[in-house]
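quick one before i forget lol
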Amino acid sequence: MNRIAHILSWVLSPILIPTYAVFAALWITPLAMLPADIRWNVVIVTALVTCVLPAFAIMLLYWMKIISDPGLNNRTERLAPYVLTILCYCACAWYLYSIHSKEALFAYAEELSERYGVSCTPFVGDMGNENTVDNLFSFIPDLDILINNAGISYVGLLSEMSAADWKKVMATNVDSVFYTSRRAIPLMLRKQCGRIINISSVWGNVGASMEAAYSASKGAVNSFTKALAKELAPSHIQVNAIACGVMDTDMNRCFSAEDMEALRQEIPCDRIGDPAEAAGMVRSLLSAPEYLTGQIITLDGGWT
C-alpha cells in the first residue's frame, strides 16, 4: 500500500511544487500588476490546485488507511474489494503454484498479467515437499497474502488404504500449509501485517465416511488455523480458513452423476457450490476487519 502513496506523490509533486512557488510569487507580486482579465483566473486555479487537490489526496489516502490514526498504520481492515483491484493495477505481484496442468497454469498466469498489468509468476511443484516450497520462496522478496489451496482426497475404506496414500494426502493437505506458512510469516512480520487464508472442508468439521484421511487432514488444517491465528494476532497478521461444502471442482469428478444428485438433494440451497463463490469468500476475508482471525468460515449452502 505504501507503493500507492509513492505513486500518488510522484504524480502530485510535479504539479504541487511549482504551483506553490507560483502561489508564493502571487503574494509577493502585487495582483494589480497582472492583467485584469486573467488576474482572478490565476488566483482561482492556483487555489484549486494547491488546496483542493491535496485535500482530496489526503482524504483518499486516509480512507485507504495509507494515512490513518495512530495504531492503525500498516493495517488493511478497511480495504474494500474494489481497492484490491486498484492494488492489482498499481503495484502487485502474484505467485501461482500447481503440481498438475502446467499448460493451464501458465495460460492463466499470462491472462492475469495481461488483464491487470501485474507480475504473475507460475510455479510448478509439489507444495507438500519442503525443498520445493523453499525453492519457491527464494523468488519471493515480499508477501502480503498467502492462500493455501493445495488439496487432494482419497475415497475408500481406511482398512484398504496404503501408508503411501495416507502420507500423500497428509503431505499435500497439511504439510504444505506448514511449509508455506513457515516461509511466509517472516516476510509478514517485517511489516507487521499480512493475511493467511487456508482452504479447508466441512469434512474437517464433521468427518466423512470413506474419507477418513481427507477428513483428518482438513481437521488438522482447521486446528492449525486457530492456533496460528492466536500466535500471529499480536503482529496484526490474520489467519482464517474457509470450510467448503460440495463444490463443482475436479476433485468431485470421481463421483457419479447419481452420487452428485444425492448430495444436491441434501443441501438446503438445492445446488452444488460454485467455485466462484469460494473465490468471493476469499476476497471478503481479504477486506475483513483485522479483528476477524482464527475463524473457520463454513461455506456449504446450509448443508452441515
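fyi Residues 1-13, 45-50, 57-91 have pLDDT under 50 and may be disordered.
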